[in-house]
Amino acid sequence: MAMTPDISAITVTPDRVALLPRAIESRTPEDLSLERFEILVDDDASKHGTTAFVRVHFGTTPNLQILGAPRLGTSPGRDTPVADVLDSCSREG
């Protein structure tokens, strides 16, 4: 059974490919094991290759997940993954 990470770092990025490397790298804690955190990237229905960019450049990052959601904007984009994480936690415990 996979462990639930202690930390979920969420990046909502509608059409901001140029900012992604720094955003993702800044969410990688140096003092935590990979099992303790996850990085969630919501492409917010990006039309400029956000999902493809993440797959090419960060596809081997084991604790990174790409979430495809309809364009809702950054606030709902942040809330959607949080709601999913909270729902997952409530089913486990």
Protein model, in words:
It is a single chain. The chain has 93 residues and is an alpha/beta fold. It has one domain. Helices cover 38% and strands 17% of the residues. The protein contains 3 helices and 3 strands; from the N terminus they run βαβαβα. It has helices at residues 20-26, 50-58, 74-92; strands at residues 7-12, 37-42, 64-67. The radius of gyration is 13 Å and the shape is globular.
Brief summary:
The protein is α/β, with parallel strands linked by helices and 93 residues long.
Looking at the structure, what is the overall shape?
Answer: globular
> Which strand order spans the largest sheet, edge to edge or round the barrel?
1-2-3
Helicity level, as a percent range? 25-40%
What order do the SSEs take from the amino end to the carboxyl end, as H and E? EHEHEH
Cα distance, first to last residue? 14 Å
Strand content: 15-25%
Features:
three-stranded parallel β-sheet; alpha/beta; 93 residues; single chain; 17% strand; disordered C terminus
Strands, helices and their partners?
Blueprint: E1 7-12, H1 20-26, E2 37-42, H2 50-58, E3 64-67, H3 74-92
